[in-house]
Amino acid sequence: ANEVCAWVIHYSTDYVFPGTGEIPWQEADATAPLNVYGETKLAGEKALQEHCAKHLIFRTSWVYAGKGNNFAKTMLRLAKEREELAVINDQFGAPTGAELLADCTAHAIRVALNKPDVAGLYHLVASGTTTWYDYAALVFEEARKAGIPLALNKLNAVPTTAYPTPARRPHNSRLNTEKFQQNFALVLPDWQVGVKRMLNELFTTTAI
């Protein structure tokens, strides 16, 4: 990319951080990946920073898209099959739509082409914070509003330890996006905006 003076866009992750505390992570905060995924993403960031001046690195988290499998579709399927569900309530982040990432990336590229000094590392997620439990609760609320029949009548909040996984998951996936919003003159929407739009499209275009 350097040889042809091209810009490189790289998507990274909140997993580069240890996931501790309750304060949104800033770009300059010390990294300490919890798992191999985070380690490889951090290595990618460093390689790009060292070898390509024209780069935009976007750390994001809790990404979803309307097409393919996602958390909301899984919750809806389970809620149609079961009367009781347990969802993790001690991991915090902002569900961020792939559509939002694409729109913001396109805007950032346009700005960068005219203002190369915006090159660098940014946090890019929707605004606000939620947990997987509250995310699921919103999905079920919107489904009922849309007349989707659910068998579910009890939603339980549980800690991460209730669902052990081979790879450790961060409790705090909050990312501070002030740098991105200031440098690119954008106001990022609340996470509920994108999720509700995705759910509305899901309810009106597919049989759940």
Automatic annotation (TrEMBL):
<comment type="function">
    <text>Catalyzes the reduction of dTDP-6-deoxy-L-lyxo-4-hexulose to yield dTDP-L-rhamnose.</text>
</comment>
<dbReference type="InterPro" id="IPR036291">
    <property type="entry name" value="NAD(P)-bd_dom_sf"/>
</dbReference>
<comment type="similarity">
    <text>Belongs to the dTDP-4-dehydrorhamnose reductase family.</text>
</comment>
<comment type="pathway">
    <text>Carbohydrate biosynthesis; dTDP-L-rhamnose biosynthesis.</text>
</comment>
<keyword id="KW-0560">Oxidoreductase</keyword>
<dbReference type="GO" id="GO:0008831">
    <property type="term" value="F:dTDP-4-dehydrorhamnose reductase activity"/>
</dbReference>
<feature type="domain" description="RmlD-like substrate binding">
    <location>
        <begin position="2"/>
        <end position="202"/>
    </location>
</feature>
<keyword id="KW-0521">NADP</keyword>
<dbReference type="GO" id="GO:0005829">
    <property type="term" value="C:cytosol"/>
</dbReference>
<dbReference type="InterPro" id="IPR029903">
    <property type="entry name" value="RmlD-like-bd"/>
</dbReference>
<dbReference type="InterPro" id="IPR005913">
    <property type="entry name" value="dTDP_dehydrorham_reduct"/>
</dbReference>
<dbReference type="GO" id="GO:0009243">
    <property type="term" value="P:O antigen biosynthetic process"/>
</dbReference>
<protein>
    <recommendedName>
        <fullName>dTDP-4-dehydrorhamnose reductase</fullName>
        <ecNumber>1.1.1.133</ecNumber>
    </recommendedName>
</protein>
<dbReference type="Pfam" id="PF04321">
    <property type="entry name" value="RmlD_sub_bind"/>
</dbReference>
<dbReference type="GO" id="GO:0019305">
    <property type="term" value="P:dTDP-rhamnose biosynthetic process"/>
</dbReference>
